[in-house]
Amino acid sequence: MSSNDNGNKVEQVTPYGTQGTAKTEQVRQMFDSIAPDYDFMNRAMTLGIDIWWRRLAVKRLQRIKPATILDVATGTGDFAIQLHHSLRPQHITGIDLSQGMLDEARRKVKEKGLEEAITFSQDDCMALHMDDESVDAVTVAFGVRNFEHLQQGYEEMARVLRPGGMLCVLELSTPRNRLIRWFYDLYTLHIIPWIGSKKSGDKSAYRYLPQSIAAVPQGDEMLQLMRNAGLKDAKFKRLTLGVCTIYTAVK
């Protein structure tokens, strides 16, 4: 299967399966719905390991010492805040489709007194409201599988990167070991949707999660999307028995 075929596959996976409604709009609706419970569910789904995954992703950016960072699909701002504490850039901009998620992110940043260091805006990675070559790094944590058009999203992120800048993507992935995959499927296909429906009332959102992970390009197929966008030195590293992967590339 080519990277384009697999890219198309995840683009066809939507949170609610609503005919005639674009994936972008369904993703926005889903995250608005679960925003108040998102952080709790993130910790519960990953058993807190997502914090460690983010730390490993941050380390990939240390060598370029970015002064300006764009955090795409910033959600409730966890990664943006971690990037600030670890890298101390001049400024971080976090963007997201969901106003509900951004409200949570702004609340966190205000509590920490970081309003000047980190700012948020509602934006779509399919058409970023940013100038060409305007940031030193672009990050995405657990967000690319929600893009309506993956290749277009990668091209937009590459467009706003300065020469020498780095794209760092952290994304959930499926284990390749059969035994581990059996337990993984049990957890993601049954336990997580049950917990999600009890906590947030939106069972569809947590059924979408494993479906989108299974459909998103992984490994070399994801790297090919980066290369197609004009990025180079594309690499990936699997984490925690293959349930998460870090992808990096430079412009």
Care to give the gist of this entry?
With 251 residues, the chain is α/β, with parallel strands linked by helices. The protein has 10 helices and 7 strands.
Instruction: Classify the helix fraction into a percent range.
Output: 40-55%
Structural class assignment: alpha/beta
Note the run of SSEs as H and E: HHHHEHEHEEHEHHHEE
- What is the count of helical runs? 10
Description of the structure:
The protein has helices at 3-11, 23-34, 38-46, 49-61, 78-87, 99-111, 150-160, 178-200, 203-215, 220-228, and strands at residues 68-72, 91-96, 118-122, 135-141, 161-172, 232-239, 244-250. By secondary structure, it is of the alpha/beta class. Strand 6 and strand 7 form a beta hairpin. Helix 1 runs antiparallel to helix 9, helix 4 packs across helix 5 (78-87) and helix 8 (178-200) runs antiparallel to helix 9 (203-215). The longest helix has 23 residues, at 178-200. The radius of gyration is 17 Å and the shape is globular.
Give me some keywords for this one.
globular; seven-stranded mixed β-sheet; about 250 residues
